[in-house]
Amino acid sequence: MRTEPASVVAPGDIHLIAEVPVTGEVLCYAVLEQPPATSEGCRLRSPDRPLYPVERVHGAGLYQRLPILPDLPAAKARELGRFVKNQHPAAGGDLAVRAVVELGAAVFRLAAGPLRLSLDAVIGDLEEHLAKQNLDFFHIPSVAIHGTVPYQPSASYP
What we know:
Aminopeptidase, alpha+beta, 23% helix, 4 strands, single chain
């Protein structure tokens, strides 16, 4: 795939790409997605707010059983989505592993830098046995919610 459908791209999305500078080969890609448009003061627990993509897959109310997240403003939570790693890099496996770590570092630098006043939480669907372990290694506070069953219609983009 060379481009994403226009229906999944928003003007406030931040696209993160790790590539080999000499060849331009993409090693890893993710998007820190623009929050859904909500009314002023809307919280993540609000039942009538637009759903994040991860909630459309795992169900509305996914975050209601957590102690802090439901009380955050919906406009201050971004979803890290469309995270993909090149499974057959011509550049070699070491660079592909490094690319994933560097992409994660880019998210942290954005959260601590330019987005620090407009971002309270990063949400998303991650691979627990690798991505969560990387977050834990760097002492990044994270929560994994178990007991959900993802659903995607057969004609969906992912």
